[in-house]
């Protein structure tokens, strides 16, 4: 799957990718680059004799991965202009890269809008996609000339009339998000029974309704969720026309996941072409699709507890890492994720560097037979571990059960792929642990490397 021959200075390979010949998930080169960055970093750290915090968890981010996702988007959803959902990962390099690639941005707060504007993005490329806005933020957006924003209730319309009467409004409608990872429609979205009434009030208040928005739920697994949402949006366009509005934009929200992207894109494109003529502008608010796979997190094992089950004559271990659910693994609590540990290095001097350039095995774990780290246990039987975060809270558990044929000890490093969405943005400082972890940037695509100076 990952058999990609790619030389950083090889333009032919680049144009192969542009034409769709390369695997969209990146290749062995990307994995090797990430591995090299991980190794370089941990080689500078002696976990048994370093300054406080020097061995903190850190990220390696592949901007090439974000770049590939954008090209893949353009290939399969060319009609739809992505507005990256900053909430998912407000990493400044990601925002800069997507700005340079011409994407728009979905912001939900003053701080997000401020960050995107400071990157040099024109206000017309921002949608304030928060149907229930803070008054002072709304004042700020009006002052900054950010006009596009969503609403879904009458109170919000009065608020907009008072503070931002020239806004371009998108009526957010409810969707069936039952097949998604994080449901949003229990909190936001006007039901189809209310849309006419809301549009009529907007008309009475002389507000400018420019379009319709929906979100099928974050981490949507059923592409058909888009079918009903698009046809409902069509009905709202028709209601608006009846009231004298001329809507010009449909916002199809986020929810896209890498694994099913082509299927979703095909279903969505079909529905859009059926219900909306080409002159209607279509935008989207993808978040995790863009960043999830680009970030790899490395964590240090700070402590280990040996657990002997004398009755069964089995020894297992509890591993304590320097990052947990109050930190970058907040995705376990808030985003229903199950991050998969892999061994990065064992042994004090990192002579047991164990990073795998292959994709995960079917079981979800890196093959233990890949390399002899010099620390494989003599029985060669799988050892059982549970993995915990650094805080005092018992809920701070990353994996209740993980098996490996390698012995993992204090000072060793584990790594977790796919840590780029809803992770560091929701990390806390609980127990005084840092919520600011270093990110090392690499690029497995020359296009992104050139844009970002990597
Ligand atoms: N747009 C809105 C309004 C959201 O609330 C979210 C996520 O919560 C997104 C976009 C991004 O969703 P996703 O990361 O699933 O693409």
List the quaternary state of the chains: single chain
Biggest sheet layout: 9 strands, mixed
Radius of gyration, whole Å: 24 Å
**What gap, in angstroms, lies between the N and C termini?**
26 Å
Bound small molecules, by name, code or SMILES, are:
pyridoxal-5'-phosphate
Number of domains: 2
CATH topology name of the largest domain, in short, is TIM Barrel
Enzyme class: lyase
Catalytic activity: L-ornithine + H(+) = putrescine + CO2
Family: Belongs to the Orn/Lys/Arg decarboxylase class-II family.
Subcellular location: Cytoplasm
What's the topology here?
Layout: H1 11-18, H2 28-43, E1 58-62, H3 63-76, E2 80-85, H4 92-100, E3 104-107, H5 110-118, E4 126-128, H6 135-143, E5 148-151, H7 154-163, E6 168-172, E7 180-182, H8 195-204, E8 208-213, E9 218-220, H9 225-242, E10 249-251, H10 261-275, E11 281-284, H11 288-291, E12 295-309, E13 314-321, H12 330-334, E14 341-346, E15 352-353, E16 383-388, E17 397-404, E18 413-416, E19 439-442, H13 446-452
Parallel strand pairs: 1-19, 2-3, 2-11, 3-4, 4-5, 5-6, 6-8, 8-10, 10-11, 13-16
Antiparallel strand pairs: 1-12, 7-9, 12-13, 12-18, 14-15, 14-18, 16-17
Helix pairs in contact: 3-4, 3-13, 9-10
The structure holds pyridoxal-5'-phosphate.
Residues 85, 88, 106, 129, 184, 215, 218-219, 253-256, 285-289 line the site of pyridoxal-5'-phosphate.
Organism: Salinomyces thailandicus
Active site: 392 (proton donor)
Protein name: Ornithine decarboxylase
């Amino acid at each position: 799957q990952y058999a990609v021959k790619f030389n950083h200075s090889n333009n032919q390979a680049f144009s192969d990718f542009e034409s769709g010949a390369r695997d969209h998930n990146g290749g062995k080169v990307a994995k090797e680059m990430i591995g090299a960055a991980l190794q370089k970093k941990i080689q500078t750290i002696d976990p048994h004799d370093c300054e406080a915090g020097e061995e903190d968890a850190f990220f390696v981010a592949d901007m090439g991965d974000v770049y590939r996702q954008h090209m893949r988007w353009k290939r399969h959803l060319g009609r739809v202009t992505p507005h990256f959902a900053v909430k998912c990962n407000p990493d400044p390099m990601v925002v800069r890269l997507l700005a340079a690639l011409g994407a728009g941005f979905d912001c939900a707060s003053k701080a997000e809008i401020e960050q995107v504007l400071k990157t040099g993005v024109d206000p017309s490329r921002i949608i304030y996609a928060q149907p229930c806005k803070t008054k002072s933020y709304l004042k700020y957006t009006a002052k900054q000339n950010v006009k596009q924003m969503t609403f879904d209730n009458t109170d919000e319309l009065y608020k907009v009339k008072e503070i931002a009467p020239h806004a371009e409004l998108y009526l957010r409608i409810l969707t069936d998000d039952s097949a998604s990872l994080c449901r949003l429609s229990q909190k936001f979205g006007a039901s189809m029974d209310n849309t006419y009434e809301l549009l009529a009030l907007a008309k009475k208040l002389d507000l400018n309704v420019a379009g319709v928005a929906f979100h099928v739920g974050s981490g949507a697994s059923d592409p058909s969720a888009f079918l009903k949402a698009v046809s409902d949006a069509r009905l709202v366009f028709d209601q608006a026309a009846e009231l004298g509005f001329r809507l010009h934009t449909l916002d199809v929200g986020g929810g896209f996941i890498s694994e099913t992207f082509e299927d979703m894109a095909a279903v969505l494109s079909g529905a859009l072409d059926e219900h909306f003529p080409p002159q209607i502008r279509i935008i989207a608010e993808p978040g995790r699709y863009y960043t999830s796979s680009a970030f790899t997190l490395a964590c240090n094992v700070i402590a280990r507890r040996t657990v002997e089950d004398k009755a069964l004559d089995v020894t297992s271990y509890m591993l304590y890492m320097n990052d947990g659910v109050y930190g970058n693994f907040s995705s376990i609590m808030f985003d229903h994720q199950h991050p998969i540990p892999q061994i990065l290095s064992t042994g004090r001097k990192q002579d047991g560097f164990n990073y795998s350039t292959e994709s995960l095995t079917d079981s979800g774990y890196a093959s233990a037979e890949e390399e002899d780290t010099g620390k494989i246990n003599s029985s060669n039987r799988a050892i059982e571990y549970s993995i915990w975060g650094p805080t005092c809270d018992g809920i701070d558990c990353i994996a209740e059960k993980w098996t490996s044929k390698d012995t993992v000890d204090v000072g060793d490093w584990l790594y977790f792929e796919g840590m780029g969405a809803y992770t560091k943005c929701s990390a806390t400082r609980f127990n005084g642990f840092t919520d600011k972890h270093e990110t090392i940037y690499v690029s497995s695509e020359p296009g992104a490397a050139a844009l970002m100076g990597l």
